[in-house]
Amino acid sequence: MTPQGRNAILDSAEAITSEELAQRRIAVAEPVSARFQTDEAGTTGIALTIKLKDPSRIAAARAAIAERFGGLARCDAVVVS
Fold first, then answer.
1. Which of 17, 44, 67, 80 is deepest in the core (most CB within 10 A)?
2. Are strands 77-80 and 33-38 parallel, antiparallel or unpaired?
3. How many CA atoms does the CB half-sphere of 45 hold within 13 Å?
4. What is the structure's pLDDT at 70?
5. How many CB atoms lie within 10 A of CB 40?
6. How far apart are CA 71 and CA 63, in angstroms?
7. What is the set of domains in the chain, with CATH numbers?
8. CB of 17 within 8 A of CB of 32?
9. Contact between residue 47 and residue 34 where contact means Cβ atoms under 8 Å apart
10. By the 8 A CB rule, do 80 and 52 touch?
11. Contact, 26 vs 61, CB < 8 A?
12. For the segment 4-17, what is each residue's pLDDT rounded down to a tens digit?
């Protein structure tokens, strides 16, 4: 846990995602949010929630995230709106 009581993994996922989007000039309407999620087999992944200022950039945001993180594991999720 980080000093603020948050998880370092989630904090890092949020920061890396925010930086990647900013580098590509994809503006977010709200801070990126990350949480752990567990699938039906008990595998844990990360779910990112991203709200863009310009929804027409959804495809570009998804591509940037997939490129940065090397695709998504079966238990990971990205919600971009």
1. 17
2. unpaired
3. 15
4. 78
5. 6
6. 9
7. 8-80 (3.30.300)
8. yes
9. yes
10. yes
11. yes
12. 667 999 999 999 99
* Spatial contact of 31 and 18, defined as CB atoms under 8 Å apart: yes
Q: How many residues does the chain have?
A: 81
Long-range (24+ apart) CB contacts under 8 A made by 64-68 are 64/20, 64/21, 64/24, 64/26, 65/17, 65/20, 65/21, 68/16, 68/17, 68/20
Q: Which residue has the tokens 């890396």?
A: 16
Query: Cα–Cα distance between 36 and 12 in angstroms, integer?
Result: 13
Average pLDDT over residues 36-48: 88
Is residue 10 within 8 A of residue 36, CB to CB? The reply is yes
Which value, in Å, is the radius of gyration of the alpha carbons in the chain? 13
Q: How many CB atoms lie within 10 A of CB 13?
A: 21
